[in-house]
Q: What sequence folds into this?
């Protein structure tokens, strides 16, 4: 009995003195590869996210798992390719336009963190299910304060198709402020609530900015227009929406500092896909944007900060994907699991240690439909310098050497047929793997498509 008591005392003491780092993952929605001041935007003022990039390591070759929202979020939170967890496309309200159903049997990585003693929270956009068993509280988050749906039809009214998807845990709420400001305030509330807790936290802060509708507060638009004479009206609104989000991120980071949490928190900033060109996004020198498997739809601005561990201002060309983020953080803080996931840790790269590529091939797949699209799948695979893609099912495959041709201007399909054949075979196997996983809600109604 004496030894048992001693053992329990030691376990309790270790828990009480838990000094593992907190984890803060911030994800923007449709932020272009070049749409930060630190990433080359000359008409943008983003001092707070710029500071994140200055304080940590910037990735110049970081890829979202998919060029649209739900699949990338599914990959990030599961550590798996999105089609292997039932989310090859966008999860939406209506069955006839829904292209994903998160596999209830998938163990989500927030659940792993929860079981390892972390308090887990999501503030902002969920977009992985509208009802049980696929709501945040069902899938590993102790705390949820945000929006269940895909996009908001209005940043102030927070409805989608007339439905209110704003919740605090399982309770529907109806706040009135701009969504960016709400998500900022709720994140600060959460950080304040953890100020004196011994238990470390994982906070996943998912802004829906700068996703359409491009609806920044008018005073922010006025500031941009005054500062940037001659700026296009649509671009001015997008710049204002991004700068408004940057201001919110600055307040969240200030709360971390004020609470004494900043020095023991790893911060990740990324985006779920490239910027939407039709609303004025800037993807730098990259081809195309959101909804496309060209580089502009997949490459995203990404940085990681770990005070005292990651060298400030460091830059790496190392390739990684959304699904690698949480496995990396878990290795950093000592969370172990035996899940058979495709996500891999890039911690050695963060520590400036030599590291082999995380995988021989990186796969990208997006399924979509509706009258506008006619029903289609687009896909790509990257293997070393080679990228094979089909950005439309009605167009032929294309092959690029993205090391020599990052803008994807020189199609080598006819000159490198052995490479095409090899990558096409690998891509076909990946599509077959994903096709074996159900991706529709059980008992969903088959109705005529509507737009």
A:
């Amino acid at each position: 009995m004496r030894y048992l008591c001693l053992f329990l005392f030691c376990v309790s003491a270790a828990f009480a003195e838990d000094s593992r780092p907190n984890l803060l993952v911030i994800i923007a929605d449709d932020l272009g590869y070049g749409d930060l001041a630190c990433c080359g935007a000359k008409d943008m003022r983003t001092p707070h996210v710029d500071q994140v990039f200055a304080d940590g390591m910037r990735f110049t070759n970081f890829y979202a798992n998919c060029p649209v929202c739900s699949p990338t979020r599914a990959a990030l939170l599961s550590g798996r390719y999105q089609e292997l967890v039932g989310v090859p496309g966008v999860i939406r309200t209506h069955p006839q336009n829904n292209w994903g159903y998160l596999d209830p049997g998938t163990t989500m990585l927030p659940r792993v963190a929860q079981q390892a003693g972390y308090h887990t929270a999501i503030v902002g956009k969920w977009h992985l299910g509208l009802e049980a068993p696929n709501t945040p509280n069902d899938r590993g988050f102790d705390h949820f304060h945000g929006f269940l749906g895909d996009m908001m039809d209005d940043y102030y009214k927070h409805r989608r198709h007339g439905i209110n998807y704003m919740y605090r845990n399982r309770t529907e709420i109806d706040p009135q402020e701009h969504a960016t400001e709400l998500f900022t305030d709720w994140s600060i509330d959460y950080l304040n609530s953890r100020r004196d807790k011994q238990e470390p936290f994982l906070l996943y802060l998912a802004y829906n900015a700068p996703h359409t509708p491009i609806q920044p507060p008018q005073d922010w638009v006025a500031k941009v227009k005054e500062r940037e004479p001659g700026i296009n009206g649509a671009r001015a609104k997008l710049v204002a929406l991004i700068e408004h989000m940057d201001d919110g991120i600055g307040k969240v980071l200030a709360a971390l500092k004020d609470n004494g949490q900043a020095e023991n928190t790893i911060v990740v900033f990324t985006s779920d896909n490239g910027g939407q060109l039709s609303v004025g996004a800037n993807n730098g020198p990259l081809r195309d944007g959101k909804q496309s498997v060209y580089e502009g739809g997949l490459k995203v601005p990404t940085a990681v900060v770990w005070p005292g561990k990651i060298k400030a201002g460091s830059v790496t060309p190392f390739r990684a994907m959304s699904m690698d983020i949480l496995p990396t953080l878990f290795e950093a803080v000592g969370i172990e699991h035996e899940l058979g996931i495709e996500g891999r840790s890039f911690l050695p790269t963060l520590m400036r240690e030599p590291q082999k590529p995380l995988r021989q091939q990186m796969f990208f797949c997006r399924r979509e439909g509706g009258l506008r699209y006619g029903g289609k799948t687009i896909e790509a695979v990257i293997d070393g310098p080679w990228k094979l893609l089909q950005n439309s099912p009605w167009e032929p495959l294309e092959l690029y050497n993205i090391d020599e041709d990052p803008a994807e201007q020189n199609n080598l399909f006819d000159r490198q047929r052995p490479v095409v054949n090899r990558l096409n075979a690998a891509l076909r196997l990946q599509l077959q793997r994903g096709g074996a996983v159900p991706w529709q809600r059980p008992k969903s109604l088959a109705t005529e498509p509507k737009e």
In short: The chain has two domains: 20-350, 362-435. The two ends are 69 Å apart (CA to CA).
